[in-house]
Structure formats: C-alpha cells, structure tokens
Design a protein that fits this description.
The structure holds 2 protein chains of 2 kinds. By secondary structure, chain A is α+β, with helices and mostly antiparallel strands. Chain A contains 3 helices and 4 strands, in the order βαββαβα. Chain A has one domain: Alpha-Beta Plaits. Chain A is about 35% helix and about 35% strand. A 4-stranded antiparallel β-sheet of chain A has the order 2-3-1-4, covered by helices on one side. In chain A, a hairpin with a 5-residue loop joins strand 2 and strand 3. The radius of gyration of chain A is 13 Å and the shape is globular. Chain B has 3 domains: about 170 residues, Rossmann fold; about 160 residues, Rossmann fold (3-Layer(aba) Sandwich); about 170 residues, Thiamin diphosphate (ThDP)-binding fold, Pyr/PP domains (Rossmann fold). Chain B starts with 10 loop residues before the first strand and ends in a 25-residue tail after the last strand. Chain B has 22 helices and 20 strands. By secondary structure, chain B is of the alpha/beta class. Chain B has a 6-stranded parallel β-sheet, with helices on both faces. In chain B, strands 11-10-9-12-13-14 form a 6-stranded parallel β-sheet, with helices on both faces. A 6-stranded parallel β-sheet of chain B has the order 16-15-17-18-20-19, sandwiched between helices. The chains are: A alpha+beta, B alpha/beta. At the A-B interface, helix 1 and helix 2 of A face loops of B.
C-alpha cells in the first residue's frame, strides 16, 4: 500500500463532507480513510484523508484544492499514517 | 410604511427580496424560469423589480435560455425553478454549463426548513443533485446567509475558468425578514493569474527553436476575450492554428493560418498536420478525448506547452513540457510584446500542400439538400453579425466542420455534454440578449423535438429566430455509428412516422416552410431570413449522409474513416 495523508482545512458547514467525498467518488480517486473534526474557531474543520493514489496524487491535490470550501491543503509524509493504524485497533478493524 | 426601511434606518428585507435585489445590483436585467409553490416568494419579489422574467415551457428550456444569454455575452445567465421536478428539470442545463465552462446561476425553491428531510411534497435533495455538476453550490439556511451567498455566486461563476453555481432556498428562508445596515459588496471576478516572466522566456525559446509549431485553441480563448491577441500572436510567429470544438470562431475561418477543427470530425489535413508538428501550444484547451483521439498517439513528435487558467487541467490528460497556469490573454500579450516577427516558409508551404490535397470532401452534386451545400448557402445569405446556434448531432458536426465563423461567440453549441434540445432555447437566449443579431438555429429532426415546446416562448417574445431542421427522419449520428461499427444493424433510430414541422410551427404561432415544396429553395431560404419573428424551415436530407471523416471512438486521430460505406 502506498498511502499518504492529505490534511484539509475546510469551511465548517453541512455539505462540506459531501463536496470532498463526492469529488473522490466521481473522479474515481482511492480514499482509504477519512477523519474529520471541528477546529477551535468552530467556523473551520480539519479533514484528514488517507489516500492511495501514487501517480495521480498531484491531480488529486489540485482538484481538491479547487473546491471552494477547501481553505488549505497539505500533503503529509508517511509518518502520519500511524494515526490511522493506531485507530484501526480502536475501530476493531485491525 | 415602506417595509424595507425601519425607523432605525436599518435595511429590512426578506430572503426573496434579497435574492432579487442582489441580482439587480449585479446588473441582471432578465431571468428565465418557471414558478412553483416553493419559489412563490421569489416571484412575489420579482413583481417589484425591473428584472424581466422569461417564462419558458419547461425548466430545461429556462436553463438553456439563460445559457444562451451567457454564451453570447459572457455575463452570467440566471435561471429559476421550483423545488422537486422544477429543480431536477434544470439539471441537464446546469451540467451542460459545467462541461462548457459557462457562467450560470441557478436559483431553486426548496420546501421549508422544518420539512427538510421528511420526503415532503416536491422535495428533492437539490443540494446533493447539483453538487457534482456545479463549480460550487449552496443551500441557504437563513435569509442572512443570502447576503453572503449572492455575491459569492457571482464571484465564483465568473472567476478564473467560469462555470455554473446553484443556490437552493427553502421557502421559509425566502420569507424570513432580516435587518442589516448596508448591502454587501458586489461579487466580482478574482484577479486573473498572470504568467511568470521566466515561463514566457522558456515558451518563446521553445517556440524559436521549433521548426513545425502549431497552436491548438479552445474555449479558454473565448472566455479570456483574447481572439485579437491570438491572431496577432499566430501571425507574428507564423503558427498554423487548429481549434477545438469550443474554440471555433476565435480565429476567422478565412484566415490563412487557420486549419479548422481538429479531432474526431476534423478534416484529414488538420489531423495530419498535428501528426507532423514538433511543438504544440495548447491555449485554453483541456485536451478532450473528442479532440485528441487516443491520447498516447496525439501529436507524437511534439513537445507540449499548455496554457490554462485552471491549474487542475494541467497534467490531467497530457503532461506538458511547459505548463503556464495563467490567463491565456495576458500570456499571449506578453509574448507578443517580447517577440519579433518570424517567418516559417517551409512549414507553411507544407501545411498549404496538405490542406490542398487532404481537405474536406465537398460533394456538390446534390444541391441544397446536401448538408454542406445547405450550410454554404446559409453562410452566403447571412453575415458575420448572425449568431449560429446548433443542436446536437450530425447537423452540428457538419456545421462545426464547414461553417465560416468569423468572430468569437458567433458559434453557440453544446460541446462537452452534447445535449440534444440545446439549440432552440439557447437561440431564444441569444436573441433576447442580442436582439440586433439574427439567431440562426441549425437543428435536426431528433434534437428539435427535445425542447420543441420553447417555440411557443420564441413566438411569445416575437424573436428573430430562424430554425433550420435538417430532417432525415433519423437520429443520424447514432445511425451512422450503427452503420460503421455495428454492422449496419439500425435499431431505434428511425422515427417511422415523421413530424410535419410546417404544421407544428403554425400550431405554435410561428411560420413554417418546407424547402421540398419550393420551386426555388435558395430563394425561399433568403426570404425566410427577411421574415420577422420565429420561422421553422424543414429541409429533407438523405438518411445515408454521414459526418466524415470520422475517428472511431478510442482510436488515434491518424486512423480516420474517410469514405461513405
């Protein structure tokens, strides 16, 4: 698996998850996991996407960045995957 | 008492009034739509507004009327519909605008917020439906939010690469009053991204080193309104130029450097030149599969420079040698300022040779009932002031192949989505927005029936629309594919009982003509163009006529089918 993590800062309102997930579904990008929590200011949320897209990662980032509700996008290096692997146990999927 | 002014001096409006006022403030003078229960407050607000409402006969018609207005002017078109079926009927026109990057604002009524999610009468998840086919969309949760949403709608629809947005407004939000101190600022397009100086330097270096450069122009040239710069740049560097379907009109078809449309139905020489070029400058294009054919075989010898305002288009289909994410007009202007004229005698001679020997095959024996001849006649009896609007099918491809377009925004057609039924309502929009121009709608017997009800709308407004129906009693382009790729097993393409379009036109109050009944068809056509108001002209053509050449879907552009089977 060549998973990487994209960290999105998004506007916090109902529908933002639909915009992000809808994009991945209709462009057939592989998303392996998703985490979303509101930020302290309550007007933004942070979304972590575990993405399995090696060749098209650049395109995935550009398309995601084009969404109006996405304020910022960061590409994390491998280490952050641990968050997801630790969650696996909690989720009972390990 | 004026409800809009409180004693406190604050402004007081309800959601519906905010929508209408904000449309006015953004310069909208006309909207198209159909009212319904969940959008009645908006229509009530419209009664107090100078905005003209064009009542169509189907919401899809309203969407395409708004598109027609937007396509000829570049200004966002606005359409309105009720919740449920009204909103879903708009969907095709919105999706069409999305694929052709047309600024469109769709405003839909929705059931009141307490009823949301209860499967209430005429409730659909319009927000969810519109989401994948818009640049951005909203459901307004309060009247106050509309003060933010409305300018944003205009900003997003017109910024960068234009596109449609939609706003779903529950009925109680339309009725909710809100107080505020002042109107928000207008939503204007974001500043255009400018090219980097070193990228321009690299581009000119590549161009100067190239022996056989080509320009491929697309809809981005239209949206950037830079047709003049494009022509100057091409002339300065002697670059033969091809257009994608959406790029037609930006370089006059009579220009010696212009080689027509490339791709699936391009002339043979056009695709041959692309095979030979060593540098391709894609300017405001997205390398659509109908243009490139099999991508891996497209321009096999060429380095690629891709100029586009939309960063996500760069590298999506074709990895360029040099990418310039910027406004194409600004890029061309800076290039022009930094170059001196270059002549490419050998290359231009080679292109001229190919053009002479491998041009489109005009069969001239069948008179005006042959599609190319008909189109040539139409071109001869109209001028470049005419807007040419088509439907979708063979008539559309023939028009894109041979109609001598002379200016940007003269050519109005559904490219990306290929929506049959686009033509008539889009022509209505064009005629409303530019009453001084004749709207010539070229259609087929299949397409015209998909939004024929809008003929009543055209008659109501007494618009200068002339509809030419190329009638082969078939879904011709489907029939053609069955002929070529499915062993000529024609199925479900033939309407065995044809429609009498003359009688149909008259039933709706338009004038109808049939060229088959005319002793001098060309003269009849000329007369029709002088008639006031909407006219429908039936022109019978052979069901065996094909759009050729044709690149089979999935094949490379060098594998064209050239001859009638």
């Amino acid at each position: 698996m060549n998973n990487t993590v994209l960290e999105l800062k998004v506007k916090n309102h109902p529908g933002v998850m639909s915009h992000v997930c809808g994009l991945f579904a209709r462009r057939a990008y592989n998303m392996e996991g998703i985490l979303c929590l509101p930020m302290k200011d309550n007007s933004h949320s942070k979304i972590w996407l575990l993405v399995n897209e090696e060749e098209r990662l650049n395109q995935v980032i550009k398309q995601t960045n084009k969404l109006e509700d996405v304020v910022d996008i960061k590409h994390h290096v491998k280490v952050d995957e641990h968050v997801f692997s630790q969650l696996e146990e909690l989720f009972g999927v390990s | 008492m004026n409800p809009a002014k409180q004693e406190t001096g604050r402004l007081r409006y309800n959601g519906a009034q905010i929508i209408v006022k904000m449309l006015e403030k953004h310069g909208i003078t006309r909207v198209a739509g159909i009212p319904g229960g969940a959008s009645l407050p908006i229509y009530d607000a419209l009664t107090e507004s100078p905005i003209e409402h064009v009542l169509t006969r189907h919401e899809q018609g309203a969407g395409f009327v708004a598109q027609g207005m937007a396509r000829v002017t570049g200004v966002p078109g606005v359409c309105m519909a009720c919740s449920g079926p009204g909103a879903t009927n708009l969907v095709t026109a919105v999706a069409d605008a999305h694929l052709d990057s047309i600024p469109l604002i769709a405003i839909t009524g929705q059931v009141a917020t307490p009823l949301l999610g209860t499967d209430a009468f005429q409730e659909t998840d319009t927000y969810g439906v519109m989401l994948p086919i818009t640049k951005h969309n909203w459901m307004a949760r309060s009247a106050e939010e509309l003060l933010e949403i409305m300018p944003e709608a205009f900003r997003i629809a017109t910024s960068g690469r234009p596109g449609p947005v939609s706003i779903d407004v529950p009925k109680d939000v339309q009725q909710q009053f809100v107080e505020f101190d002042e109107w928000p600022e207008l939503g204007l397009a974001d500043p255009l991204p400018q090219p980097q100086a070193d990228d321009i330097e690299k581009m000119l270096k590549m161009l100067n080193e190239a022996k056989r450069p080509m320009l491929m122009i697309g809809g981005g040239i239209t949206h950037s309104s830079c047709a003049d710069d494009l022509v100057e740049f091409a002339e300065q560097h002697s670059i033969p130029t091809v257009a994608s379907f959406m790029g037609l009109g930006n370089m006059p078809s009579s220009h010696p450097l212009f080689l027509g449309m490339l791709g699936m139905h391009g002339a043979r020489y056009t695709n041959m030149v692309l095979e030979e070029c060593d540098l391709l400058i894609g300017a405001g294009v997205r390398f659509d599969d109908r243009a490139t054919g099999k991508v891996s075989k497209f321009c096999p010898q060429a380095s690629i420079i891709h100029i586009d305002i939309d960063e996500s288009e760069i590298g999506k289909i074709k990895n360029p040698t040099l990418a310039i994410q910027a406004d194409v007009g600004a890029t061309l202007q800076i290039c022009i300022e930094n170059s001196t004229p270059v002549q490419r005698i050998d290359w231009c001679e080679r292109v001229a040779y190919l053009k002479q020997h491998f041009g489109l095959d005009f069969a001239n024996s069948k008179g005006i009932f042959q599609p190319y001849n008909l189109l040539q006649s139409l071109a001869n009896i109209t001028d470049e002031q005419t807007n040419i609007i088509t439907d979708v099918g063979q008539h559309q491809m023939w028009t894109s192949q041979v109609f001598p377009f002379q200016r940007a925004r003269q050519w109005i057609s559904s490219g990306g989505l290929g929506t049959m039924g686009f033509g008539l309502p889009a022509a209505i929009g064009a005629a409303l927005a530019q009453p001084e121009r004749l709207a010539l709608c070229i259609s087929g017997d299949g397409s015209i029936m998909m939004n024929i009800q809008e003929l009543a709308t055209a008659v109501e407004h007494d618009l200068n629309i002339k509809i030419i129906i190329m009638n082969n009693n078939n879904l011709g382009l489907v029939r053609q594919q069955q002929t070529l790729f499915y062993g000529a097993r024609h199925h479900a393409v033939n309407s065995r009982r044809g429609t009498n379009f003359v009688a149909l036109a008259e039933a709706m109050g338009a004038k109808g003509f049939d060229l088959s009944n005319s002793s001098d068809p060309l003269n009849t056509l000329q007369q029709v163009m002088q008639e006031p108001g909407p006219c429908v002209v039936n022109v019978n053509i052979s069901e065996d006529e094909m759009v050729l050449p044709m690149v089979p879907p999935g094949a490379s552009n060098s594998e064209m089918i050239l001859e009638q089977v």
